[in-house]
Each structure stands twice: as C-alpha cells, then as structure tokens.
C-alpha cells in the first residue's frame, strides 16, 4: 500500500464526513466536491484514467453545480431553527454503523480469497471506445435514451407551473 | 491491518464512504443533503467496481470499468431528476425540510 493511497483515502473520507455533518448547505456542497475529487484521484491511482476523468467531468463539473443551484433556489443557505439533524438521528447512525460493521467484516473475512497483486492492465481509451461501440453498444444506447428521458423529465418536473388553488 | 492487500484497503474505504453516505441520508433533515448522501453511496459502489476491475483476473475484458462508467451516467440522471423534484417540492410547500413535508400523512 502506497502512502498516496492513504492520503487520498483520508482526503475522500474527510470530505464525505464533512459534507454530511457541516451546518451550512453551501459548505456541504464544497466538502462533497473534495470527496468527489478524492474519488477521482483514487480512480487514477487504480489505473482507471477514463473513469477518473469521467468522474471529474460528471461529478465536479455537473452534479456539484446542480446541487449548488438547488441549494440557492430552495434558500437552503438559511439555517433551520430546529437543527440540521432529524429527530430520529440515533437510529440512522445505528443503521449506518451496522451496515459498515457487516461490510467491513465481510471484506476482512475475504482478505485471503482476493488476489494479492495484479499487473497494471494495459487498457487504453481506444480500447474503451471500441468496447463501447462494439460489445456494449446496446447499453450505450439505453443510457443515451435514459439521459434524454431524465433531462426532459427533470425540466418538466421543475418547470414553473401556474399557481393552483390550495 | 488495513494494508494487508491493496484490494482490501480500497474495499474498506468504499465501505466507510458508503456508511458515511447512508448516515447522511438517514439523519439529515434537508432533502438536498439526503441526495448528497445518496451520491456518496453511489460513488462508493463505483470505487468498488473499479477496484474489482483493477485487481480481478481479467481486466482486459473491461467489465467493471464499463459498469462504473454506466453507473456514473445513471447517477448523473438520478441527480438531475432528484434535484428537480426537490425544487418542485420546495415550490409547493415552501420548505425543503423533510420533517415538515407531511401532506401525505393520514
């Protein structure tokens, strides 16, 4: 394990932890940006260049901007008086801790079964492109359809409508 | 020790990130923070996919990589629709706090 992995892991986890614990929603959006960047660097560390740059483009470029827009449009920068955590937060924390305990136990139990070391896979972006229009062309078309439908659906759902009588 | 194998290290980081996202989605009151928690969980799953692709027996088949790329695309669509729903709910109820949206309560 290289020290770079530990640095990136700490960066990612600190960003994730900050994004769910900070009070101001804008700070949460900034922290989640740090977490997404750390994940992209972890992808690069795993020799998955294409996925790393797609992560930067899609998440830091689009999703975080969407989140900031939603925060500002819903006046989320105002602090609620009752606190930022729901009344049932101990239950949620307990469920999350239980899920992590099960996942961590499963990973540590299977340490011997997983491969120890692997050679760096010689995969170029050219290979990924050929696979996308060859073997994976049907999923690619379905994802294109899904993205079109989601874009139209998001616009229709968020579109301004006439004020109806309550 | 965490650093027993590289794959186990990545899997543990992904599990911890998933737990953090789950805790955020379950404990926060604001709907946007719930969506951020869901995004963190999806990203943790992507990290798992990439790690298994990298340390799996056949990385040249690109299976895990393709799965992660399609997962990123679907997560982007989910974020767009989810945030559109949050904005729509805010316009109807004038709040994004999930505790206060109780119109469908019997």
UniProtKB/TrEMBL annotation, chain B:
<comment type="similarity">
    <text>Belongs to the complex I subunit 4L family.</text>
</comment>
<keyword id="KW-0560">Oxidoreductase</keyword>
<keyword id="KW-1278">Translocase</keyword>
<dbReference type="Pfam" id="PF00420">
    <property type="entry name" value="Oxidored_q2"/>
</dbReference>
<keyword id="KW-0472">Membrane</keyword>
<keyword id="KW-1003">Cell membrane</keyword>
<feature type="transmembrane region" description="Helical">
    <location>
        <begin position="6"/>
        <end position="25"/>
    </location>
</feature>
<dbReference type="GO" id="GO:0042773">
    <property type="term" value="P:ATP synthesis coupled electron transport"/>
</dbReference>
<keyword id="KW-0812">Transmembrane</keyword>
<keyword id="KW-0830">Ubiquinone</keyword>
<comment type="function">
    <text>NDH-1 shuttles electrons from NADH, via FMN and iron-sulfur (Fe-S) centers, to quinones in the respiratory chain. The immediate electron acceptor for the enzyme in this species is believed to be ubiquinone. Couples the redox reaction to proton translocation (for every two electrons transferred, four hydrogen ions are translocated across the cytoplasmic membrane), and thus conserves the redox energy in a proton gradient.</text>
</comment>
<comment type="subunit">
    <text>NDH-1 is composed of 14 different subunits. Subunits NuoA, H, J, K, L, M, N constitute the membrane sector of the complex.</text>
</comment>
<dbReference type="InterPro" id="IPR039428">
    <property type="entry name" value="NUOK/Mnh_C1-like"/>
</dbReference>
<feature type="transmembrane region" description="Helical">
    <location>
        <begin position="65"/>
        <end position="90"/>
    </location>
</feature>
<protein>
    <recommendedName>
        <fullName>NADH-quinone oxidoreductase subunit K</fullName>
        <ecNumber>7.1.1.-</ecNumber>
    </recommendedName>
</protein>
<keyword id="KW-0874">Quinone</keyword>
<dbReference type="GO" id="GO:0050136">
    <property type="term" value="F:NADH dehydrogenase (quinone) (non-electrogenic) activity"/>
</dbReference>
<keyword id="KW-0520">NAD</keyword>
<keyword id="KW-1133">Transmembrane helix</keyword>
<feature type="transmembrane region" description="Helical">
    <location>
        <begin position="32"/>
        <end position="53"/>
    </location>
</feature>
<dbReference type="GO" id="GO:0048038">
    <property type="term" value="F:quinone binding"/>
</dbReference>
<dbReference type="InterPro" id="IPR001133">
    <property type="entry name" value="NADH_UbQ_OxRdtase_chain4L/K"/>
</dbReference>
<dbReference type="GO" id="GO:0005886">
    <property type="term" value="C:plasma membrane"/>
</dbReference>
<dbReference type="GO" id="GO:0030964">
    <property type="term" value="C:NADH dehydrogenase complex"/>
</dbReference>
<keyword id="KW-0813">Transport</keyword>
């Amino acid at each position: 394990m290289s020290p770079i992995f530990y640095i990136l892991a700490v960066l990612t986890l600190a960003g994730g932890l900050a994004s769910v614990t900070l009070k101001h929603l804008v700070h949460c959006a900034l922290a989640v940006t740090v977490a997404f960047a750390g994940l992209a660097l972890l992808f690069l560390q795993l020799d998955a260049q294409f996925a790393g740059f797609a992560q930067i483009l899609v998440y830091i470029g689009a999703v975080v901007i969407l989140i900031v827009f939603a925060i500002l449009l819903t006046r989320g920068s105002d602090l609620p008086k009752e606190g930022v955590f729901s009344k049932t937060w101990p239950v949620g924390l307990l469920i999350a801790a239980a899920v992590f305990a099960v996942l961590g136990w499963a990973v540590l139990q299977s340490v011997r079964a997983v491969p120890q070391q692997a050679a760096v896979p010689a995969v170029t972006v050219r290979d990924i492109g050929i696979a996308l229009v060859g073997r994976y062309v049907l999923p690619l078309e379905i994802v294109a359809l899904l993205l079109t439908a989601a874009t139209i659906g998001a616009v229709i759902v968020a579109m301004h409508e006439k004020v109806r009588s309550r | 020790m965490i650093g027993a194998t590289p794959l186990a290290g990545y899997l543990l980081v992904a599990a911890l990130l998933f737990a953090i996202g789950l805790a955020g989605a379950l404990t926060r009151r604001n709907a946007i923070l719930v969506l951020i928690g869901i995004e963190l969980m999806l990203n943790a799953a992507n990290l798992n996919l990439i790690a298994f692709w990298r340390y799996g027996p056949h990385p040249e088949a690109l299976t895990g990589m393709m799965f992660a790329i399609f997962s990123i695309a679907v997560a982007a669509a989910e974020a767009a629709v989810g945030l559109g729903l949050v904005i729509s709910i805010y316009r109807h109820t004038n709040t994004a706090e999930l505790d206060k949206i109780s119109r469908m309560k019997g």
